[in-house]
C-alpha cells in the first residue's frame, strides 16, 4: 500500500513527536487516563528557539476573533466560530517586552496528549524562549501577509520559529489556532478548549477538517483586511494585495482548499501534509505552489503525485533527506531539550532543520510576493545538499 504522510486511520496519533516515545507509553495511556500516583516532575531547563535571521526585530500581538456569521462546525452549541491568532510583525529594535511561548495550561495539555506519562513540568515548555516582543513599535510601511496553519492536534505555537523568522524578514504573519482541532487553545477568559475532533476521527474526515481550515483562514483575511474597522490595531501594516499561505501537516494540506476558494491568496506551501482535498482541475489558476516533505521510502505519497500533475503554474516538490514529519516545526528543538529522541533515520539536526525550513519558505514568498529572484529554488545547491528536487 502506498505510504502517505498522514492517514485517516492515524488521525489521532501523535504524528509530530517521535514514534519511540509513543511506543514506550502504556497501552492504556490517553489524554483522559487517570493514574493512581503521578511521578515526580523532572526538572528540565526551558528551550530556546533559534534567533530569527532577518534584519528586523519582531513584535507579537494576540487576537481573539469571532466569526458571527458561522457557527462552530465541531461544537455547534458553542455558538459562533472563535479563533485565537498570533500576529507577528517587523518591529523597531529595543521596544516591547518578551513574548511568552504559550500558556502553561496549553503546554500541560500538549505534553499530556503527546507524551503520556511524561514528568516534564509544563512550565518547561511554556517558558521556551522566543525572540518576539509584546507591544513592540511596528516598522513603517506595508508588508505582505502570510497565513500559517499548524498540524492537526498541534497548537499554533509549533510554527513559532518560522513565524518569527518571516516577521524578521519583513512579513506580517497570522499564526492561527483552529479551535477544537488541537491539544489546547487558551482564550482571553482563561479557558483552554481541547480537541473535540480528536475524540472521534471517523466522524470528522480529514478533507472536512481541511476545508474548515480554509474557511478559518479566509475569515482571518476578512478580519484583517476586509473591514473599515479591522480586528487588529496594526492592520495598516498589511498589504492586502500580497497574501500567501503555508502550514504543516494537515495545516499545509489546507493551503490547497484555501487557495481554491480564496483568490486573494496568491501563493501556497505545504510542509509535509497529505492532501485529502485534491488540487482542483484549474490547477489553482496557475498560482505558485511548493511542497516540502520528508522521504517516504520507495512509494510516493499518491496525493502529492496527483497534486503535482494538476498544478498549472510555478511549482516545486522538494524532499529533505534525513528529515522526519516534525522537522519543519519547533518540535525537534523542544524534543532535544526534553530528552525526547528523534525517529529512526533522522540525521537532520534540529538547528539545521529550522534553518532549512526558514530558508526555503522565505525564498518562496520572496520570489512570488516580492518578485525577488531566488536561485536556491532553481535546483540542487551545495549549500543545501539535503534538498532534492522532484523531476517533472
TrEMBL record:
SUPFAM superfamilies: alpha/beta-Hydrolases (SSF53474). The keyword Lipid metabolism applies. The keyword Phosphoprotein does not apply. GO terms for molecular function: 1-alkyl-2-acetylglycerophosphocholine esterase activity. One of its GO terms (biological process) is lipid catabolic process. It comes from the Bacteria. Coiled coil: none annotated. Keywords: Hydrolase, Lipid degradation, Lipid metabolism, Signal. Residues 1-23 form the signal peptide. This is Alpha/beta hydrolase. It comes from Streptomyces monashensis.
Amino acid at each position: 500500500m502506498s505510504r502517505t504522510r498522514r492517514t485517516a486511520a492515524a488521525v489521532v496519533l501523535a504524528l509530530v513527536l517521535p514514534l519511540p516515545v509513543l511506543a514506550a507509553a502504556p497501552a492504556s495511556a490517553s489524554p483522559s487516563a487517570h493514574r493512581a500516583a503521578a511521578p515526580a516532575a523532572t526538572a528540565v531547563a526551558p528551550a530556546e528557539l533559534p534567533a530569527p535571521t532577518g534584519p528586523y526585530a519582531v513584535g507579537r500581538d494576540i487576537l481573539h476573533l469571532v466569526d458571527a456569521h458561522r457557527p462552530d462546525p465541531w461544537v455547534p452549541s458553542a455558538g459562533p466560530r472563535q479563533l485565537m491568532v498570533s500576529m507577528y510583525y517587523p518591529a523597531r529594535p529595543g521596544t516591547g517586552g518578551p513574548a511568552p511561548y504559550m500558556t502553561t495550561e496549553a503546554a500541560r495539555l500538549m505534553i499530556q496528549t503527546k507524551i503520556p506519562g511524561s514528568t516534564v513540568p509544563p512550565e518547561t515548555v511554556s517558558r521556551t524562549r522566543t525572540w518576539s516582543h509584546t507591544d513592540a513599535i511596528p516598522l513603517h510601511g506595508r508588508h505582505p501577509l502570510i497565513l500559517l496553519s499548524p498540524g492537526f492536534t498541534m497548537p499554533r505555537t509549533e510554527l513559532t520559529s518560522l513565524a518569527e523568522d518571516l516577521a524578521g524578514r519583513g512579513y506580517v504573519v497570522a499564526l492561527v489556532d483552529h479551535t477544537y482541532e488541537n491539544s489546547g487553545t487558551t482564550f482571553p477568559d482563561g479557558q483552554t478548549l481541547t480537541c473535540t475532533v480528536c475524540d472521534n476521527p471517523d466522524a470528522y474526515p480529514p478533507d472536512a477538517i481541511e476545508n474548515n481550515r480554509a474557511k478559518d483562514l479566509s475569515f482571518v483575511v476578512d478580519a484583517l483586511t476586509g473591514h473599515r474597522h479591522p480586528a487588529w490595531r496594526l492592520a495598516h501594516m498589511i498589504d492586502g494585495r500580497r497574501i500567501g499561505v503555508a502550514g504543516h501537516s494537515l495545516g499545509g494540506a489546507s493551503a490547497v482548499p484555501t487557495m481554491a476558494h480564496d483568490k486573494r491568496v496568491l501563493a501556497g506551501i505545504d510542509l509535509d501534509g497529505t492532501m485529502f482535498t485534491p488540487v482542483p482541475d484549474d490547477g489553482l489558476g496557475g498560482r505558485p505552489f511548493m511542497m516540502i516533505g520528508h522521504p517516504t521510502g520507495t512509494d510516493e505519497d499518491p496525493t502529492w503525485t496527483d497534486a503535482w500533475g494538476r498544478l498549472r503554474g510555478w511549482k516545486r516538490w522538494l524532499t529533505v533527506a534525513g528529515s522526519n514529519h516534525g522537522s519543519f516545526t519547533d518540535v525537534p528543538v523542544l524534543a532535544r531539550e526534553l530528552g525526547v529522541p528523534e525517529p529512526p533515520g533522522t540525521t537532520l539536526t534540529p538547528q539545521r532543520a529550522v534553518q532549512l525550513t526558514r530558508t526555503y519558505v522565505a525564498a518562496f514568498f520572496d520570489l512570488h510576493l516580492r518578485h525577488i529572484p531566488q536561485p536556491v529554488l532553481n535546483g540542487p545547491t551545495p549549500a543545501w545538499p539535503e534538498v532534492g528536487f522532484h523531476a517533472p
